[in-house]
Design goal:
50% helix; alpha/beta; single chain
Length: 294
Amino acid sequence: MKLGMIGLGRMGGNMVRRLERDGHELVTYTRSGGGTAATIEELVSALQPPRVAWMMVPAGEATEVTLATLLGLLEPDDIVVDGGNSNFRDSKRRYEDARERGIRFIDVGVSGGIWGLQVGYCLMAGGDDEAIAIVEPAFRTLAPEDGYAHVGPSGAGHFVKMVHNGIEYGLMQAYAEGFEIMHASEYDLDLHEIAGIWRYGSVVRSWLLELLHTALEQHGSGLDDIAGYVQDSGEGRWTIEEAINEDIPVPVIAASLFARFASRQEESFGAKVSAALREQFGGHAIRAAGEEKA
């Protein structure tokens, strides 16, 4: 099939290559240049009805601006696919905005990262059956066998991807805490070796563990050249917000998000408050600012 891809970053660029490798015809645009189309207008004009324009741009303002541009150019029955990490509530609103113009909107959660070109992308699609059916050949190409599903109506794709990423936060934090315990122990453990053997037969084996094994191989068991600063892209926060809305306890996902916040603090003011209080009520010793930690 022929489709347009807007956004050629780490995900979008590799998705284009995977699609072209399977015989699909792509028209591409990226704001920084380098696509086959110089503008979004040129991309749309190169497609045939029903046109399929796939957005792989950052969630938020970039998606809003790109969609607004597309809605002003596309015609009834054309399709917009949002493959970014948008909030599912935004996707439901965008679906309605597109439908008012007769344009069909699909939200697709995409997982696979930089490895997707090689092994495929897990795809979670939300939208109407008719629109999904038109784009499904591309979905089948991008996904590995059994790695794609039409999970529900508008918003469902990004909702499922949101929860997926919330679970990912918890899994990553569990590995982080376990390996920190081993790193700090009295034993001189080869963490690279341990991550390696855990990949085979262990109940904690996973793709994340395989990636950790690779990271320890590349950076050494102490990870000395990596700063312990962990960013988040929003999905963990949204997962927790939805859990609160539904009165569902999610202590692991919540704690993993807060651990990411803590990783960005050079020194916690809250810890200073706790140290000051211990001194006041118990006479416990405090360290002066700048004093080397034991």
